[in-house]
Design goal:
18 helices; disordered N terminus; Beta-Lactamase; 11 strands; alpha+beta
């Protein structure tokens, strides 16, 4: 890359005199002092300086040139451009010299090779001038290795960003500080039905003069002004019921200053619709749950009323008839015993004790209820086994299950005593 200029320099001792505070009539000693001052200054600048003759040989180099190239001053004065610049072999030098002479100066990038053979990129600012009728090239050279590495890293990061952006399911765009498009992925270009190359460098009003996206750009500018990540839900113009979630992220330079913003957009229309559907279903479920609760309460109340009616019927209608029947069979021992047992069972069913021990919370089986009743009456395990024609071990098993269901299995409590307490309580 070259940036040509047209100015030429003619170097003479009078020029040195002019540098000395504009006094061209200084004597020879004063002019030599100016020359020594210039030589000292050139040895202390950060750029490498090369004074090159028309043949491509070095007439002068400063200390910085010696340092970065690894040559001593005497070694340098025996070398030429082709010894340190692989891009300028000797056969090309004359054409380059003529080009520089015509243009006066140029800035270009190239390579230099050190004494150790290490090559590195450089920026060369070459200037043609004449001194005592002879042409020279004064080149200021700067090592741009760090800049090149930064450029390579930047290109790599840019490529990685574009790869991610072009394969992202989101709409992605990038803006400068004034809100002009710097980039948009193809997904966003297709969504907006535009050519991405046609909008780069343009702002909102140049693309959409109407106010359809004014809120979008206002939010983006706010994100940059406040250096804050912001989000908004945007109803897409001309697209019924389509909503996008937009996230604005400020972009910073190496000094932390906001230089632009990224915008990431995602269609959330289906998500919002599903959210509304779910909310409606939850409301319906809550209403059904409330109705079911009321129904269950009514069912429980009905069950309680039925139980009360059954017990009242037993107490007021069935048991009195059985009492009368009991008086009529006093002389029949077998019938009397059976009838008495039936009366005892009915009275137990209607008693508070029966309600407790037969409740679903306790959960005794019919056989366990029978055995519990006999235990409460004072029958031994052997007597109960004989009554039901069971093995003694089986009755012990039932007793153990009854204790467990009554939650007294691991307590020092007598089963009969506990059952009696339930009856008395």
């Amino acid at each position: 890359m070259t940036l040509p200029q047209t100015r030429k320099y003619v170097f003479s001792w009078d020029l040195l005199g002019d540098i000395a505070e504009g006094r061209p009539n200084l004597g020879q000693n004063a002019r030599l002092e100016v020359y020594r001052l210039m030589h000292f200054a050139l040895d202390h600048v950060r750029e490498a300086i090369f004074l090159i003759n028309p043949e491509g040989g070095f007439e002068y180099v400063n200390q910085e040139a010696c340092r970065i190239m690894g040559y001593s001053l005497n070694q340098f004065l025996g070398l030429g451009v082709s010894d340190i610049d692989p891009d300028f072999p000797l056969e090309q030098w004359s054409a380059h010299w003529q080009d520089l002479k015509d243009k006066g100066s140029m800035i270009m990038e190239g390579r230099h090779r050190t004494k150790a053979g290490v090559e590195f990129p450089v920026e060369i600012n070459a200037n043609y001038f004449e001194f005592d009728g002879r042409g020279y090239n004064l080149s200021l050279v700067r090592d741009i290795s760090e800049r090149k590495r930064a450029e390579i890293l930047l290109r790599k990061q840019e490529q990685e960003f574009r790869t991610l952006a072009e394969n992202s399911p989101d709409n992605i765009s990038r803006y400068d500080r004034e809100g002009r498009f710097l980039y948009l992925n193809e997904k966003l270009a297709d969504f907006l039905r535009i050519n991405s190359g046609e909008v780069l460098g343009k702002n909102r009003t140049e693309i959409r003069p109407d106010e359809s996206y004014s809120d979008y750009f206002a939010m983006m500018m706010k994100a940059m002004e406040t250096d804050t990540i912001l989000e908004m839900e945007l109803e897409i113009p001309d697209r019924e019921k389509e909503v996008h979630l937009i996230r604005f992220v400020p972009e910073h330079d190496e000094h932390g200053r906001v230089i632009g913003a990224f915008a990431f957009g995602r269609d959330i229309s289906d998500y919002l619709q599903n959210k509304r559907t779910l909310r409606r279903q939850q409301e319906e479920l809550a209403a059904n749950k409330a109705a079911l609760s009321v129904l269950l309460d009514h069912t429980r109340q009905s069950e309680t009323e039925i139980q009360k009616n059954v017990l009242a019927t037993l107490e007021n209608m069935v048991i009195p008839y059985l009492d009368e029947a009991m008086e009529a069979v006093t002389e029949n021992a077998t019938a009397s015993v059976a009838l008495q047992a039936a009366l005892d069972c009915l009275r137990q069913v209607t008693s508070p004790y029966a309600k407790k021990i037969a409740s679903p919370e306790v959960g005794l089986s019919p056989r366990e209820l029978q055995i519990a009743d006999l235990v409460k009456q004072g029958l031994t395990t052997k007597d109960i086994a004989g009554r039901f024609n069971l093995a003694v071990g089986t009755v012990e098993f039932y007793r153990d299950r009854i204790r467990k269901k009554l939650k007294i299995k691991n307590k020092k409590a007598n089963l009969r005593t506990y059952l009696l307490s339930m009856q008395n309580g």
